[in-house]
Amino acid sequence: MGAQSRRHARWSLAGLLIAALVSVGCAVGGVSEPEGQEPGDNAPAGSRPAASPGPSTTRADGTTSVAEFQQDVADAQDIAEAYWAAQFKASGQRFQPVRRITPYQREGEVSCGGQPLPRNNAVYCSQGDFIAYDVNWSVAAFRQVGDAFVFYLLGHEYAHGIQVRLGIRYNFTIQQELQADCMAGAYLGDSVRSKALTLAEGDLDEFREGLAAVGDDPNQPWFAEGSHGTAEQRTESFFRGYERSLDACDLG
């Protein structure tokens, strides 16, 4: 898959192993979530440890350069902003883009509400209204996974920013996270249908296989702090959004 407006490289989804999403404090790894605060509230969000790909692990499609990674981040941001701007306009609401997307390299280099962000992580922070990611960890994952990592990462984190803008608050983390998966699926599916992104044959099957690897441990209670759902739940939520758009995501 590639961004039509800026580049046409194939987005291969094989081997997608993005960290499972968890909502406890500012732990290490993966992608993260808000807890329903308005932009500017104190709401650092973190996720559980993830196995980072080795620097020598590179996808066969040649997605290796930092310049390509940076271009994918820019493309993903542009497409997410355009997508959500169109959704808000259609509903008669004013859209405010996430204020910034910030890379960092060292633990504590970026803070959310006074809480330093750890390495090997990506978060949406409602205090300051920004997305931050460990660039070294993200580039390593990009080299293993390909463009899918970047577009999914930005899509999921941006969804948390949209939840805050819409005032969506849930009692349990799993509700917030499965909805964000659905919203990320809608963003990707609608972007493919509008031809803002292109999808190669077989990528959806590969994506489904990748999502199956990121669910919660089957023994984790659904109501536990930080639960994100089983592999089956997360896959179902993502593809429900992908296939049926935002109407399937219970946005109210």
Overview of this protein structure:
This protein is mostly helical and about 250 residues long. The protein has helices spanning about 65-90, 135-145, 145-165, 175-195, 205-210, 230-245; strands at about 100-105, 110, 115, 120-125, 130-135. Helices cover about 40% and strands about 5% of the residues. The strands form 2 sheets. It has a 3-stranded mixed sheet.
In short:
39% of the residues lie in helices and 7% in strands.
What is the fold's blueprint, element by element?
Layout: H1 66-90, E1 100-104, E2 111-112, E3 115-116, E4 122-125, E5 130-134, H2 135-145, H3 147-165, H4 173-193, H5 203-211, H6 231-244
Parallel strand pairs: 1-5
Antiparallel strand pairs: 2-3, 4-5
Number of DSSP strand runs = 5
Biggest sheet strand line-up? 1-5-4
What structural class do helix, strand and pairing data support?
mainly alpha
Portion in beta strands: 5-15%
Roughly how many Å is the radius of gyration?
Answer: 16 Å
Give descriptors for this structure:
252 residues, mainly alpha, three-stranded mixed β-sheet, two-stranded antiparallel sheet, 6 helices, 5 strands, 39% helix
